[in-house]
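Why does residue order matter? Because the sequence determines the fold. Keep that principle in mind as you read this record.
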Amino acid sequence: MVILKMLISLNWINELLEIENINLNELIEKLTLGGFEVEDNFELLIGSNKETILEISATANRADSISAKGIAKEIGSLIDKKAFQNQYVKNTSELEDVLQQSLSNNEILDKQYCSSFIAITVENFIDITVPEWLKQKLISSGVEPVNSLVDFQNYILLETGYPFEFYDLDKIRNDLNESEFELKLTKAGNDKSLIGTNDSEYKLETDTLVVKANELLLSVAGLIPNQKYAIDQTTKSLLIEGAIFNSKKIRQTSRKLGLRTDRSARYEKSLNNHSFNESLVRLLNLLRINNSQIIYKTTACAQIINEPIKSIPLIYQNILEILGPTIKNGKETQITTDQISRYLDRLDFNFSFEPTTAKWDVIVPSSRIDDIIREIDLIEEIGRLHGFNNFVSYLPNISNIGAEDFSYQTRKKLTTCFLSEGLNELMQYSLVKETANNTQTVKLVNPLISDCSTLRTSLLPAIIETIEKNVKQGNRNIEGFEFGHVFSTTAPNVYNEKEYVGGNFGSFETKMSWSENSKNLSWFEAKGKLEDIFKKLNIPIYWKKTIPETYDSILHPYRTAQFNLLSGQFFGIFGQIHPVLAKNLNISTETYLFEFDFEMLKNQLKNNLLPLYKTYSLYPKIVKDLSFIVDQKYSFKDIEQSIRKIGTEVLIQLDLLDEYKGESIPTNCTSLCIQLTFQSKEQTLRTEEIETTIESIQSTLVQEYNIIQRI
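Structure:
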């Protein structure tokens, strides 16, 4: 099981640091304010002793603290207590000599894979009985002892934070038919698979990093050993492999194999070499507790020589500006230079202080070089030890309130329009699953999961997915809209990002008026809803019967149109969902989708900033309906233009009320009902004048379109 949280016994901590007289709640508060979340605390009966256990979560960048030794050192910094003298390495001159001789001939590793790699054979085991004190510490940390060499492996991980891999040395030698071999870190090459200690088989790629003895595959580096060479109760000789692998490489391999282990979880947090050799010596000493006659031999040893640690300048004035005043005895004051120096000392940072310039030159210990690299990191550490709750918190005085920019104003207008049409605002992820055969998509170099591996090129697929999920859960199809960014690429390293507005409506039956039966929106009614929105925004558009290639598989090939600005620029798309897609997803074919360029709409609104007002007529309107049957080959747009030519200036509005096709209508014909509104600004219109105009319109429509008038 992968360790995501750490269980630590206070008795174990007390062996490393004097905390026996500290109040438990006070300790938990110190840890919490110091950035370590204490999830829980409870008592556990181990043998005849009752122990208090803390469940602690550490931040992702603090690999140095995910161990008993590390958390004890951190607690010591927070409560201003020094850890006891290190007792890990006693009577180890022999072991240190072995390592030093090997390290004097070390190779330089490729840091993109590994910064340390040490392998040691341990032979002549007689008694592998695990000490009771070690078992108790495993139990207190939530690990079940198995009374084998595995217990030593688990213990050193919990105590020091460094994972070591154990192999059965006799099994390796039997397969090689020789006692001497070369252990190497290399790529899988011709090895296609490996069966791990969890009985699962893993397919290996040619560039998967592995550990081999000659050409014998021992393990996937940093993740899992080959089951064939795993240790068991009969193991009498060991091959111990210790390494510091590159965190990025481990994450990539872990993702490819779909595997995460205790060992890989540690490497993912960027371990460094700080106490690596000391931890290895500690492990070898543990193995010698009941086996004083065992023999050690180094078979491989390489470490990258770390560059000298550079000092970080820390300026007192910057600390005051960032952390602000502190509270002491109910009064505001400033943190002093002496306090800061004490905090740096508690963190084991080497430093020199120049009083005249109020500046420190700080050298960070090697255990913290990965997470403390800038002055602001040092300031955060000072604030953490002083206690962020001890600094004054207040809002700054604001001289004036910020104004809404035009982009925000445009979004507010659009949101109001959509909400008034009954749509709900949606929010979707910008990361989607990779689309096959789309060369314009922007792919992530290192995605976490395949379903979030590509930046979206359109808002519509995610909106359709939302509809599908609602239908599956038994909900009514949701009508919604979304503001979001879309991405594309036309050439290597050339990326485009635009903000779009997309949405959907329709897909369920509704009443247009109280006297009608419920029915789905027709294509023309749906198109009219969108036209109403643009009319409210005072943006004139015109429709064009084309469909861009991007929407081929999403929108209906014959019920889709793009809308353009009067300048001819492509502005967006509207259409009915593709019937094949609707059937595959089991959603209504009467779903209507739209998407348009938010930036173009915003720019268009900028040109319409001057409001235009029309004079209101004091004279009454005369409304007339005109119903007729016409051949479908004639477009309504042509008919409308013909009527307006005849209707004179008093024809102020023309609306298509109804379109009907049925058994009573001749084949290839349609019945249209048009409402004409007449009004004059100068006088009251007489019915006789309007009737004459209507007759003229009817006569023209008969001549030009061969209509059949309906009564």
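Residues 88-93 have pLDDT under 50 and may be disordered.
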